[in-house]
Amino acid sequence: MGPEDLAQVLRHLPKNVDDPNLLVGLETADDAGVYKINEETALVQTLDFFTPIVDDPYMFGQIGAANALSDVYAMGGKPITVMNIVAFPINTLNSSILADILAGASDKVRESGAILVGGHSIDDEEPKFGLSVTGTIHPDRIRSNAAAKPGDKLILTKPIGVGILTTAIKNGSIDDDSLQEVMQVMATLNKTAAETMENYNVNACTDVTGFGLLGHTLEIAKGSGVGITITNDAVPVLSRAREYAEQDIIPGGTKKNLKWLAGDVDYADDISELDRLVLCDAVTSGGLLISVPAEEADALQNDLLAKGVQSAIIGETTGDNAGRIQVI
């Protein structure tokens, strides 16, 4: 389901009562909801869960937690409490598997500085796991995905190609080095990146997940009323993602992303079909996409690199072609 399909579903929901304390709600395609408590504090709320994408249950728990926590980081918030969401076939799978999933998530939550306060579980034929996360943020420091300014630079804090490699995991064709690489990327919190950008005048931010790099870039373009240019060669990609894509190891979600983005993206003639698929690859627990004034971009990028965050300046926003992307 792409953003346009999601919008068609959400439009059937009743509109929120006019409440000045609701700072970010359903009206935008932001990563989390934000509700103002007082002049100093607003709550950031999000929820995410999915089926296993790796065989190691402990690692699956870590990835599930990192993925859910990421939405709070993308808003510029600090996670404070989490609740587990569990669906598990307790009669057909050993309970030790569930214990390992929860242990992985617990360790990642502890790393974030948040605390586990509860959760809910159901008996289900297919395992599913994730978190409901609550964070806090100053009402004046919200990092929406709809506030980029013309002339900003875009910084991406994790490589893409995750969906391609997790598909290789599912069909048993992934090599061990690639497996370790993609698991490490997915399990890495966006905490350091979020804390680092607090010291800069970031205009907009989102995290890159299921709609792919270009899908989430388009949300910034449309929400902010800017055009965006992405430099293909500058985008960091997991080591063997293109190699696996050449073997048609590509998730269905990635192909759908490419299709629904077709009317909103202009590609240079030398951008191959394979590169277009990689740019649209459906990501799990991806990095932050940060829109920052050009004069601060190099300083932020150097700061991120110095703190061990895999990041790159991959493009810029423009005052032309509002709501569209150009890939060069």
From TrEMBL:
Cross-referenced InterPro entries: PurM-like_C_dom, PurM-like_C_sf, PurM-like_N, PurM-like_N_sf, SelD_I, SPS/SelD
Q: Where does ATP bind?
A: T28, A29, D30, D48, D71, G119, H120, S121
Q: Is ATP-binding given among the entry's keywords? A: yes
Q: Write one Pfam family the protein is assigned to.
A: AIRS_C
**Molecular function GO labels:** ATP binding; magnesium ion binding; selenide, water dikinase activity
Tell me where the transmembrane regions lie: none
Ranges for domain PurM-like N-terminal: 30-136
EC number(s) per UniProt?
Answer: 2.7.9.3
Cofactor(s) demanded:
Mg(2+)
Binding-site list for Mg(2+):
D31, D71, D207
Keyword Magnesium present in the record's keywords: the answer is yes
Q: Name one GO cellular component term.
A: cytoplasm
Q: What are the GO BP annotations of this UniProt entry? A: selenocysteine biosynthetic process
Reactions this protein catalyses: hydrogenselenide + ATP + H2O = selenophosphate + AMP + phosphate + 2 H(+)
| The PurM-like C-terminal domain, residue ranges | 149-327
Cofactor binding mode and count = Binds 1 Mg(2+) ion per monomer.
Q: What does this protein do?
A: Synthesizes selenophosphate from selenide and ATP.
Subunit text: Homodimer.
Q: Which family does it belong to?
A: Belongs to the selenophosphate synthase 1 family. Class I subfamily.
**What is this protein identified as?**
Selenide, water dikinase
Q: Which organism is it from?
A: Planococcus lenghuensis
* Biological classification of the source: Bacteria, Bacillati, Bacillota, Bacilli, Bacillales
